[in-house]
Automatic annotation (TrEMBL):
Protein name (Swiss-Prot/TrEMBL): Uncharacterized damage-inducible protein DinB (Forms a four-helix bundle)
Coiled-coil zones: none
GO MF annotations, alphabetized: metal ion binding
SUPFAM superfamilies registered for this protein in UniProt: DinB/YfiT-like putative metalloenzymes
Pfam families the record matches: DinB
Similarity comment: Belongs to the DinB family.
Keyword tags: Metal-binding
InterPro entries (alphabetical): DinB, DinB/YfiT-like
Positions of a divalent metal cation binding: 151
Length: 173
């Protein structure tokens, strides 16, 4: 019995994943989401919706805002409020598919630059994201990834409804 407890303790101490693996995982999802953006006809990216959902461009604006502001907030004492995040999202000047892809790529560079600067212990600290959502930093980052997956799935539904074959959901390279 004692041996099992030690094994469990070691598993907890070692953790499920590393911060480097988490970044690689996130960037894989970002590459796939970029492919979904590329698959959209430009006009449909900004105008098409189903069942009252937003156009895919608006969802991408949200993901761009969350990733950039969210990560930058990890280095601030006074995080961005949810209202300011929504203001930023709604005011992004992304009017063409090219601008959206360019913005997406710039966020990738920001993520890659900021990620290594996050102290390891910060991933285990409780923070308040956007002044509203309290949780462990790693869980909040996982929420950002989950949110991206959710919106990408909405993009898949739009593409299929438009008769366009979306990228393979497993192709994150």
């Amino acid at each position: 019995m004692e041996n099992n407890l030690n094994q469990e303790t070691n598993i907890v101490a070692e953790g499920f994943t590393t911060t480097d693996a988490m970044l690689i995982h996130w960037q894989g999802h970002r590459r796939l989401t970029r492919k979904v953006i590329e698959a959209f006809p430009e006009d449909k990216l900004f105008t098409y919706s189903i069942g009252g959902m937003r156009p895919f461009s608006a969802m991408i604006n949200e993901l761009v805002s969350i990733a950039t502001i969210g990560l930058q907030d990890l280095f601030k004492d006074d995080p961005t409020s949810l209202n300011d995040l929504q203001y930023h999202r709604d005011k992004l000047p992304l009017a063409t598919k090219e601008e959206i892809l360019d913005s997406w790529d710039k966020v990738t560079v920001i993520i890659n630059a900021l990620w290594p600067q996050i102290p390891q212990e910060s991933f285990y600290e409780v923070i308040k994201a956007f002044g509203e959502y309290e949780g462990v930093t790693s869980d909040i980052i996982l929420y950002w990834i989950d949110n991206e997956i959710h919106h990408r799935a909405q993009g898949y539904v739009y593409l299929r409804a438009l008769g366009i074959q979306p990228p393979a959901f497993w192709d994150r390279y």
